[in-house]
Pectate lyase superfamily protein domain-containing protein
Amino acid sequence: MVLATLLLQALLLVPVWGHYYVAINGNDSGPGSATAPFRTLERAQKAVRSSTNGMKSDLYIYVGPGTYYLNEPLKFTSEDSGQNGHRVVWQAQDMTKGASISGGVPITKWKASSAGKGIYEAQAPAFTTRHFYANQAHAQRARSQVQRSWVNQTATGLQVVNDAAKYILTMPGLEHAEFHAHNSFTSRYNPITGASADTIVMAQPAWNNNLIGYDTFNKPDVDHGLYVENALSLLTDPNEWYLDPESHIIYYMPPSGQDPNNMYLVLAKLETLLLVGGTYDQPVHDLTFRGFNYMHTTWNHMSTGYVDQQTGGYIGLNKAYTDFEAARPFWWQVPGSIQVSAAQNILFQNGSIVALMGGFGIGNDPNAHTTGVGLGASDVEISGMLLHQTGANAITVGGIQAKAHHPSDPRLLNQNTRILENIFTDLAYTIDSAVPIFASYAKNTYIVHNDVVNVPYSGICYGYGWGSNDAGGSPQYQQRGLYNYQPVYSTPTTLQGGRISGNLIYNVGTLHSDDGGIYTLSASPNTTLTDNWVKSRQGFGYYLDEGSSFYYINNSVLDVSSTWLARNEQPTYTTGNNTIANCASSFAPSDSHNQYNDTIVNSAQWISYRSMSPTQKSIVYLAGIPPDQRSRRPYSIDQGPF
Ligand SMILES: *[C@@H]1O[C@H](CO)[C@@H](O)[C@H](O)[C@H]1NC(C)=O
Ligand SMILES: *[C@@H]1O[C@H](CO)[C@@H](O)[C@H](O)[C@H]1NC(C)=O
Ligand SMILES: *[C@@H]1O[C@H](CO)[C@@H](O)[C@H](O)[C@H]1NC(C)=O
Ligand SMILES: *[C@@H]1O[C@H](CO)[C@@H](O)[C@H](O)[C@H]1NC(C)=O
Ligand SMILES: *[C@@H]1O[C@H](CO)[C@@H](O)[C@H](O)[C@H]1NC(C)=O
Ligand SMILES: *[C@@H]1O[C@H](CO)[C@@H](O)[C@H](O)[C@H]1NC(C)=O
Ligand SMILES: *[C@@H]1O[C@H](CO)[C@@H](O)[C@H](O)[C@H]1NC(C)=O
């Protein structure tokens, strides 16, 4: 016994092959053993790189509890990969405590400010940012609502036509302020450059691009509020903040009664935390990240404006477009804080993403990857995580440009992403039209047994392109003139083989409209949506929007207060050819007619959960994360058994 203990201790003093340790109070000059751990993840990465030749088993890096503040993103290339079929596993040493990776800087030494009652101030380091987090939640940039009737759109900006908005013309710091329009399915930002007579002058080309297309800045399909943001004089409400870009003094009004010196207040410095990206010749592969909490990022590009289109696709500001359709093939994507491209077999298990801007970007277009190499992600798994307090989509799978839907080289294909048993809740705070899961052009995307709870727009969005890139094109987009700017493709896109099943989707559309529990676009052969339970007072249940075809929907319960099956079907659209079977809803009969070669069978209306069939009750009970894991929910939901 004693001997065994001594032997074990001796073993721990020197690094055992295949095991490295990192701890907050470690030392990078040491060996990285259990008793003399490294201090930084970067140091451990160097050690791993020199150990993977001839790997005979998995290699583990155990990261001790605490928060690791990064000075720059951690970059994983093919050199960091597992070899010979073995994996390199980065793992929290104590899975119950986890280990946190932060891109921010804690702000301390707050004192009462003369800027106003209840406002505190502190000196921040000199960097540019758009994000400040209070106790692991998004703090609100100082803002004030502007009624649409107070301002009138002109080619250069917004003309003030009501005295209530006059103060904006002379507001100190006007040239750092922005307008934010919360529209039907878009969330648009436009910076202000100054004032000219009675007009608030808007930055170009953002303003030009914000006025073309659909659900535009000043002609929303539905108005969910217009705000002027980011000036010190607008800081009047608890949880609002403002950072002076010259003095780097940060101002914050804590919730009443709270001393900011007792809060965890962090200013985001980095835009990305993990760059997992190889090249198409040498992809990064066989990595696991288990039990980490990713937090505190920003995205400064938005300061030139954000011309939202849908679910994180936006018109770039490299030019002013006159024809909206000319822009459509070239929309950009919001980058993730954790980016994975040209990569194979990368697993993210347990832990969380919390209080950050972008979420996971899996095989997005090159414009959304810091490495410059987009797409090419295969066999990436995100499982057992909590994803909340993001600024944008929590997970974006696939790209939206031509190389994503019609790759010239098979190595660019995104395939086999698995999103399993995660909790998505309370997210999309910056771009509030963003969604928990957006899966675009990719093959065999699995979205299975997730909780998707309390979200501002749709729950799960699958597919993109409105049918315009599908084989044969779309008569609607012929009419709109899109094919003056891109080909009519004769072959199918990469979108196929999706599986969205066993998900719990609860309370969607809290801030937007024209949304659904599960929302689809374009043709996706061999794709099944089954055993999902949608319960929401806002939004449709299943929403098959433009071009959605060849979906197989089965065995679902839709508890909604409007249409359970919305189908955007018109003669010029290519929506149709869908099969919908065994769905139970509160609105069954009116949505159950066959049209456009859809087949709808066995849809049933139900009155109460108690009166459901055993199969329907079991769909409800099993939806979401598995019953034995439900204690990790930050909310409670009644799923029976009824
Ligand atoms: C780290 O280890 C080196 C070499 O043993 C030592 O010189 C140094 O003081 C240590 N640093 C700290 C912070 O303990
Ligand atoms: C707003 O502009 C429109 C057209 O430019 C004009 O007809 C209207 O009178 C303006 N509204 C106000 C209140 O000035
Ligand atoms: C990690 O997540 C998986 C998938 O949900 C789950 O089965 C497992 O229990 C989790 N592990 C820990 C340590 O929480
Ligand atoms: C359909 O998808 C399933 C699962 O994703 C796959 O196993 C099967 O091979 C696919 N079938 C066709 C015809 O592509
Ligand atoms: C559809 O759901 C029914 C009812 O649960 C089930 O019997 C059937 O196998 C499912 N069909 C397919 C193709 O999955
Ligand atoms: C359904 O699919 C068939 C065969 O591919 C096609 O000819 C037809 O136009 C499609 N119908 C709709 C409404 O998309
Ligand atoms: C109707 O749908 C079936 C099944 O998707 C398909 O095989 C067929 O071609 C479609 N027919 C027409 C006329 O669109």
User: Anything to note?
Assistant: The helical segments are 2-13, 41-49, 206-210, 324-327, 402-405, 475-480, 614-622.
